[in-house]
Task: inverse folding
């Protein structure tokens, strides 16, 4: 009889990486039922409930490090909540059951259900504050762009490394007033800016597939928890990312300190955001460049999920047809 062995130090067994698919599928289907209903909270809640239910079935001893908020503000999937059936490896869990709640509520492209699972203690427990981020895909020399460099210099360096002129570079930026100067600076180089209204987990991941998405670089300020999820995925593909928490008030500094952030100005490299063996899964809720959204057919519900695994750098896309609809209602 052949025994299946798990390589030493490989905490997240291969089988578990595919188990995540079920978790994000359930969350995506639950949210998708509320697409276009203008109720962000309800869609988010449906995704949270479904994700938590499914997570608790996994053979893991998980701790939520990126969740729906601190314990007193989030009844479910709060930071520190133990999840799983406790009969498995100790793992860190990062979730955004509905990333892009507004996109879902408005039935606009790009909302996803996303989660990461990593070796215990290896995901940054990021406070829910803003994070300044920069990300590029694989294939560039290390350090070609830097969070502390001027956007113009980053665009020029990237274009040079890619062997193209700056007007063949496209940067992805969240469409926010706080980015007015950043956007102007990028455009002055001749590069294009694609603006998104929400969804910068997918936005960062777009840099890893420039042929499909047309995006070369992600720049700007988004949420920190989303930064950790994106870093997990990008690490599997070999892109580059840096982030820095924005702790510009007493209140945010306090919250960060409570979560163990000792240096408020620290520059986090991708490996500081997600250090260990990590698996990231995302299922489309609404159609987007990364994933198709959930389709409700007469007989089947269709989902599309992408799974990233750091140990091997494998990226899998899983299209599923669900025939037993009752499983989406199970308690
Ligand atoms: C981004 C975006 C998210 O929050 O992280 C953003 O990717 C940042 O916050 O989808 P603001 O909206 O306050 O700018 C989201 O839009 C929502 O989580
Ligand atoms: Mg959320
Ligand atoms: Mg989000």
Result:
């Amino acid at each position: 009889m052949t025994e299946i062995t798990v390589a030493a130090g490989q905490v997240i067994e291969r089988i578990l990486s595919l188990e995540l698919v079920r978790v994000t599928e359930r969350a995506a289907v639950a949210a998708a039922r509320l697409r276009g209903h203008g109720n962000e909270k309800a869609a988010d809640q449906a995704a949270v409930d479904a994700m938590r239910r499914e997570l608790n079935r996994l053979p893991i001893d998980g701790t939520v490090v990126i969740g729906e908020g601190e314990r007193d503000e989030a009844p479910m999937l709060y930071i520190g909540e133990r999840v799983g059936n406790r009969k498995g490896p100790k793992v860190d869990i990062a979730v955004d059951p509905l990333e892009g709640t507004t996109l879902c509520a408005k039935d606009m492209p790009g909302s996803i259900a996303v989660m990461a699972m990593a070796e215990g203690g290896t995901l940054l427990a990021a406070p829910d504050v803003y994070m300044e981020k920069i990300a590029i895909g694989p294939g560039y020399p290390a350090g070609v762009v830097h969070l502390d460099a001027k956007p113009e210099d980053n665009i020029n360096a990237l274009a040079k490394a890619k062997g193209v002129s700056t007007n063949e570079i496209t940067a992805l930026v969240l469409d926010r007033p706080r980015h007015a100067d950043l956007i102007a600076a990028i455009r002055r180089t001749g590069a294009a800016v694609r603006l998104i209204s929400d969804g910068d987990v997918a936005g960062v991941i777009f840099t890893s597939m420039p042929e499909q998405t047309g995006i070369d670089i992600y720049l700007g300020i988004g949420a920190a928890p989303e930064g950790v999820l994106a870093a997990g995925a990008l690490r599997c593909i070999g892109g580059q990312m840096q982030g820095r928490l924005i702790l510009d008030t007493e209140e945010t500094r306090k919250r960060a300190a409570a979560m163990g952030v000792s240096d408020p100005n620290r520059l986090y490299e991708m490996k500081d955001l997600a250090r260990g063996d990590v698996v990231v899964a995302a299922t489309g809720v609404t159609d987007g460049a990364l994933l198709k959204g959930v389709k409700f057919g007469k007989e089947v519900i269709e989902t599309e999920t992408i799974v990233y695994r750091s140990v091997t750098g494998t990226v899998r896309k899983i299209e599923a047809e669900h025939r037993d609809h009752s499983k989406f209602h199970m308690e």
